[in-house]
Q: What sequence folds into this?
């Protein structure tokens, strides 16, 4: 109980000020039948710092961490090297232990970071504006569909087959309750994206088309025709980016006409963390800013005329508009946004472009090497740092067996799309700057033995 | 001790009053350093990182290579460290002092939790890694889940919601799925006036019509009004308990029984669970679903706005509808139940709420905190949280109006109003005055049921000495506001910024930085 500073003498003194005999007496409003007489049965009592650390370390050792193995997993979460100063800086107590910046005079640190973050994200995505972050990419994607519904007053969203299946699942869950109609099919093992099919499907009921870039199979394609077709029909184009490092090398969705661009910011600064906390990116055109969900930070001046920053346009938000708010979101991912922003500042334009180029070059080398393994075919020619291999066997089994050999060799399409039996031989492989030539060779040899 | 060149110690000399605080050429004030934006000090050619040489390959971008400048300034590592260190010093944080935000619960964040969360065996795991390689991580989720279920006396828990409001969504979706499973289409959710704004927003997001339930004069849900509104169209009632007035809803069990008798479900906003943890189990009060803000009750850092984490405990009636994925223990193995296994034994699930498995990084922190406290410590947590709040309530009720102070103890937070301040003085003035006194202000103007509300939550991790200093400061401010001290209206005077113009920010929103010449041209 080392985190509780009161002594028994303090407690007695305070109780006498209050005029109560005991702490238990302060719970007088709880009906007697609902009060537990002592500590809850079946749970252990407090443990020392050393004991807790030992227990947690033991559990941590039961995992095979990404750094301990040749590692090729992506599909919405990417392993990148995070410079040491990022984690060092986010652990400064003034960042780590601050609350939502409701009192701007003593929260300029967080607010200026959010303003810088918004600008970095808007520029990266090719948007006019960006918000101060959301929970993650998948929930940001759903929020974008909801925003398109509010703007267009239409309730049918076309989801590309290349959209991350978990993002599709999240949207389907929510749509059951909001009544949006979602149109989606699982992908085919085909190098071409479904952009032509999407263009053909847009009609007068379509609120938006949601397309991922690069998509779940690692494919990339020009989104301009899709944006044009959507706009002609009065619909919006929502683009989803799960690997923001890609935008250091390939054209930004906003520059290809996307109205809303959302993404997963985990790649920069945040780390894998077994799925969370992650960082939702959300940008859009200026004209839609008042329909945007989440927190926004804006520039202003103080009573002495000095520049400062505040949370703004809060009339869109739940604490003012309650049931009419643009979303129910209260928390954002402030600390993850800080990590992203610091990492981006360390990189700068030059570093981001180098990082992206390096990722791509290593991925190209790896793709060519792995495609030489007997029983392996490279699906897509155009990609950034992730591509799909078609194996001669079900990739689910191959991935499990590779794990037993100590190789974390990609994500099987069978795991991602359990209902689409015909793509079970697909393996999505990601290669970042953390992968060495030796890792690729180990992976290739293990794959060769597995497919033999 | 500073030394002069001659090696003698320095001592202050008498200085005339007007020379005490001259303006500085830089705008800096010793340790208070002004910091420009990265866009004003960085450049496209500067970087703080080094990469390995890029292998020569023919790129496979098709025709999509990014050609134009992105517009991202870089800083060297040294400049980066300085930039963010300087900015950090313009923030108040729980590590600096008391942060008495009622309804938000800012308590000490132990550093052991940070150390644990950064163990590579937790931090460096991919969410889609083969299950055989992440058994320890699944064990953490399972162990934390067991604690949450036992502490709340509920049937099961959905771990994936990403924050409190996301947890509300989870609870309401489970309720809606349960109603639909029995072919019962209901359209209304009842929300008391004192609820968090997220409650009605969430209900509306789930497609429900929201109706308010009034509060009684003693700050609790009006039981008769609630009972009379219950009917076949009501899907759920959302109640916060302890509520946002800092009071325990004495009639909770009666409310639950009435709601259940009407065929509806009880959602409890568990944001204030730290007031009762180890002493009261919401399951015993008839709650069907409740989110737990891990950052509030179990001390995961809030990081200037997040991340949060909002697991939702569920009653037996709602458990079959819990979202995917979740962790099950099968023999001595842990299994992550995903879509692929759902047909077999979890057909009722309402689906997936988020791409992966929730806030793993928060789970490790919360579990470390829970194990450190243990069952005995958590009971002491609620005891001390309530003791500290009542100490503040009683120590200030002679200078500040406490609207419900007469009706017995409060729970974990003390509520005051602006009644009795001099004409023209508001809660805002007291809050901004607190900034000058070195404290973060309390929650202002919430709950809405009290005029000029000031909601103070000290939490259990404050010492008596810290509380006494805070009481002294707030007492002094209350006295100044009652005496009509005009200087208070200009506060804060000593913060990095004076009062900021929020109206201007909303009227002419500037949300991204633009090069000055471009910004000028646009005007």
A:
């Amino acid at each position: 109980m080392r985190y509780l500073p009161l002594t028994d003498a303090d407690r007695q003194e305070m109780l006498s000020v209050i005029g109560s005999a005991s702490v238990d007496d302060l719970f007088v409003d709880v009906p007697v039948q609902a009060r537990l007489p002592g500590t809850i049965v079946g749970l252990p009592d407090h443990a020392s710092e050393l004991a807790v650390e030992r227990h947690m370390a033991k559990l941590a050792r039961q995992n095979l961490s990404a750094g301990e193995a040749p590692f090729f997993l992506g599909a919405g979460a990417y392993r990148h090297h995070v410079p040491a100063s990022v984690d060092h800086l986010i652990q400064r107590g003034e960042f780590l232990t601050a609350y939502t910046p409701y009192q701007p005079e003593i929260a300029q640190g967080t607010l200026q970071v959010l303003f810088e973050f918004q600008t970095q994200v808007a520029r990266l995505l090719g948007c006019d504006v960006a918000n101060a972050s959301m929970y993650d990419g998948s929930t940001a994607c759903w929020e974008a569909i909801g925003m398109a519904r509010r703007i267009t007053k239409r309730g049918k969203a076309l989801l590309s087959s290349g959209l991350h299946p978990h993002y599709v699942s999240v949207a389907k869950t929510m749509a059951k309750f909001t009544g949006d109609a979602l149109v989606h099919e699982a992908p085919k093992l085909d190098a071409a994206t479904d952009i032509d099919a999407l263009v053909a499907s847009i009609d007068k009921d379509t609120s938006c088309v949601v397309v991922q870039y690069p998509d779940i199979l690692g494919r990339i394609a020009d989104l301009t025709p899709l944006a044009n077709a959507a706009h002609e029909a009065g619909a919006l184009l929502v683009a989803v980016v799960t690997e923001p490092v890609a935008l250091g090398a390939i054209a930004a969705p906003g520059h290809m006409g996307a109205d809303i661009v959302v993404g997963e910011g985990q790649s920069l600064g945040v780390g894998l963390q077994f799925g969370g906390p992650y960082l939702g990116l959300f940008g859009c055109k200026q004209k839609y800013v008042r329909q945007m969900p989440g927190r926004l930070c804006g520039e202003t001046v103080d009573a002495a005329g000095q520049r400062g920053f505040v949370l703004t346009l809060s009339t869109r938000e739940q604490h003012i508009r309650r049931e009419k708010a643009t979303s129910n979101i209260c928390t954002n991912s402030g600390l993850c946004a800080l990590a992203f922003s610091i990492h981006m500042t360390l990189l700068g334009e030059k570093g981001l472009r180098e990082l992206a180029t390096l990722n791509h070059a290593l991925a190209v080398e790896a793709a060519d090497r792995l495609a030489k393994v007997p029983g392996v075919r490279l699906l897509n020619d155009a990609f950034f740092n992730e591509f799909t291999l078609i194996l001669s066997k079900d990739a689910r089994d191959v991935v499990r067996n590779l794990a037993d050999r100590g190789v974390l060799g990609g994500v099987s399409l069978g795991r991602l799309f359990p209902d689409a039996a015909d793509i079970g031989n697909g393996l999505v492989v990601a290669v970042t700057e953390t992968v060495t030539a030796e890792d690729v060779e180990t992976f290739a040899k293990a794959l060769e033995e597995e497919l033999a | 001790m500073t030394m002069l060149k001659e090696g003698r110690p320095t001592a202050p000399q008498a200085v005339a009053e007007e020379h005490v605080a001259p303006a500085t050429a830089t705008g800096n004030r010793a340790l208070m350093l002004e910091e420009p934006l990265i866009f004003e000090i960085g450049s496209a050619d500067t970087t703080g990182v080094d990469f390995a040489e890029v292998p020569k390959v023919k790129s496979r971008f098709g025709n999509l290579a990014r050609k134009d400048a992105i517009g991202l300034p870089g800083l060297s590592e040294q400049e980066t460290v300085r930039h963010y260190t300087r900015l950090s010093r313009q923030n108040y944080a729980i590590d600096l002092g008391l942060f008495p935000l009622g309804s938000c619960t800012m308590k000490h964040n132990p550093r052991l939790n940070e150390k644990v969360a950064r163990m590579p065996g937790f931090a460096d795991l991919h969410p889609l890694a083969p299950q055989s390689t992440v058994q320890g991580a699944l064990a953490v989720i399972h162990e934390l889940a067991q604690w949450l279920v036992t502490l709340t006396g509920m049937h099961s828990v959905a771990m994936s919601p990403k924050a409190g409001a996301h947890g509300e969504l989870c609870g309401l979706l489970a309720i809606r799925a349960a109603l639909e499973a029995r072919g019962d289409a209901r359209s209304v959710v009842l929300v008391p006036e004192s609820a968090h704004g997220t409650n009605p927003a969430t209900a509306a997001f789930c497609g429900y019509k929201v109706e308010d339930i009034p509060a009684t004069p003693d700050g609790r849900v009006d039981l008769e009004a609630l009972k009379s509104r219950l009917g076949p169209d009501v899907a759920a009632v959302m109640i916060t308990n302890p509520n946002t007035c800092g009071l325990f809803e004495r009639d909770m069990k009666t409310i639950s029984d009435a709601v259940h008798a009407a065929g509806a479900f009880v959602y409890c906003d568990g944001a204030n669970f730290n007031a009762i943890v180890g002493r009261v189990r919401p399951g015993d009060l008839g709650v069907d679903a409740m989110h737990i803000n891990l950052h509030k009750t179990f001390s995961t850092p809030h990081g200037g706005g997040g991340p949060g984490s909002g697991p939702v405990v569920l009653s037996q009636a709602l458990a079959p509808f819990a979202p995917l994925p979740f962790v099950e223990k099968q023999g001595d193995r842990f299994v992550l139940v995903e879509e692929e296994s759902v047909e077999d034994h979890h057909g009722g699930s309402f689906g997936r709420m988020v791409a992966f498995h929730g806030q793993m990084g928060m789970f490790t922190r919360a579990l470390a905190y829970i194990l450190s406290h243990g069952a005995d410590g958590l009971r002491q947590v609620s005891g001390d949280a309530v003791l500290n709040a009542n100490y503040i309530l009683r120590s200030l009720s002679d200078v500040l109006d406490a609207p419900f102070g007469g009706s017995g103890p409060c729970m974990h937070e003390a509520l005051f109003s602006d009644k009795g301040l001099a004409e023209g003085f508001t809660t805002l003035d007291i809050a901004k005055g607190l900034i000058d006194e070195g404290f973060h202000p309390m929650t202002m103007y919430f709950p809405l049921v009290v005029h000029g509300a000031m909601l103070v939550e000290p939490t259990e991790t404050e010492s008596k000495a810290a509380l006494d200093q805070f009481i002294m400061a707030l007492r002094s401010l209350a006295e100044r506001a009652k005496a009509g001290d005009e200087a208070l209206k200009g506060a804060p005077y000593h913060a990095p910024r004076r009062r900021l113009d929020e109206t201007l920010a909303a009227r002419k929103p500037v949300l991204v930085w633009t090069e000055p010449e471009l910004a000028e041209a646009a005007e």
